[in-house]
Specification:
Elements: E1 3-12, E2 15-25, E3 30-34, H1 41-48, E4 56-61, E5 64-65, H2 71-77, E6 78-81, H3 93-98, H4 113-125, H5 141-154, E7 159-163, H6 171-184, E8 187-191, H7 195-201, E9 204-209, E10 212-217, H8 219-222, H9 225-232, E11 234-240, E12 247-256
Helix pairs in contact: 4-5
Bound molecules: adenosine-5'-triphosphate (ATP).
InterPro entries: AAA+_ATPase (IPR003593), ABC_transporter-like_ATP-bd (IPR003439), ABC_transporter-like_CS (IPR017871), P-loop_NTPase (IPR027417)
Domain ABC transporter: 3-235
Organism: Streptomyces toyocaensis
């Protein structure tokens, strides 16, 4: 399924933080949202997973306004890993992942064999099977992150919306998470701070700056030294990754763009 964000404006207490945003997450592709702190990435994603109502504009799922769908129906299509990760669930890891099955259940219906299989599979995919009986609140930040990702997988959605999913993860688990996303072949909209991760995993990128999309395209088209200087304020060279051929950004940690002689 495709997600189209059309003329989106987001405001908090009347203050507009995102304006006139149009973007597309194509079916089966990984679409990245990148941009500096405060540029509006989470705000856009919150409207897609219906945590926020747009002040103007629409989010369309295969042409249907997501806001018009009943909550359980929307949750069968779109699953989110928000940045607000919670931590106080007094539930076991397995119970947290099983919450992903809620949109498929009638009120008070128990788990069936299919649910149990899906939950076990989701835990396995994020490498958390042996933590199933542990209390969620007693996990580390990275472990929680993986469990919440398993919950979104258990939801078996058409569209995954992930806000900074690599936060808290060590480098091996970052690489594994990105590989897992690639292997899903689901429509995925993901915000990432790690631009090299974005370059390697995303089919297309949208760059947000001060609440507006300022560039869209493939990582190679978008991640230019000029854009990195203009939008992120850093000096960098973009080279070819020697192992994968992806664009690889080599930051100059000795200079910001403003200090760079032109
Ligand atoms: N709940 C809120 N209430 C009021 N203002 C908010 C709220 N959430 C975000 N903002 C403001 O909206 C703007 C965009 O924030 P947002 O979190 O969408 O940016 P972001 O690109 O995801 O940032 P970051 O990279 O730091 O996570 C910022 O100016 C922020 O201060």
């Amino acid at each position: 399924m495709r997600i189209e964000v059309d003329g989106l404006r987001v405001a908090y207490d009347g203050r507009t933080v995102v304006a006139g945003v149009n973007l597309l997450a194509a079916p089966g592709e990984i679409t990245g949202l990148i941009g500096p702190n405060g540029s509006g990435k989470s705000s856009v994603l919150r409207t897609v997973y219906r945590h926020l109502r747009p002040a103007a504009g629409r989010v369309l799922l295969d042409g249907t306004d997501l806001a018009a769908l009943a909550p359980a129906r929307a949750a069968r299509h779109v699953a989110a890993l928000p940045q607000e990760r919670g931590g106080d669930f007094e539930l076991t890891v397995r119970e947290v992942v099983a919450m992903g099955r809620t949109p498929y259940k009638r009120a008070f219906a128990g788990e069936d064999e299919k649910d149990r299989r899906i939950v076990a599979d989701a835990l396995e995919r994020v490498g958390m099977t042996r933590y199933g009986g542990r209390r969620f609140s007693a996990l580390s930040g990275g472990e929680r992150q993986r469990v919440l990702l398993a919950r979104t997988l258990a939801q078996d959605p058409d569209v995954l919306v992930l806000d900074e999913p690599t936060n808290h993860l060590d480098v091996r688990h970052q690489v594994e998470l990105l590989a897992l996303l690639r292997a899903q072949h689901r429509t995925t909209l993901v915000s990432l701070h790690d631009l090299n991760a974005a370059a390697s995993v995303c089919d297309r990128l949208h760059v947000l700056h001060a609440g507006e999309v300022v560039a869209s395209g493939t990582p190679l088209e978008v991640l230019t030294p000029h854009l990195l200087a203009e939008v992120f304020g850093v000096r960098a060279a973009v080279i070819e990754h020697p192992l994968t051929g992806d664009p690889l950004i080599a930051f100059d940690h000795t200079a910001t763009a403003a200090e760079t002689p032109s």
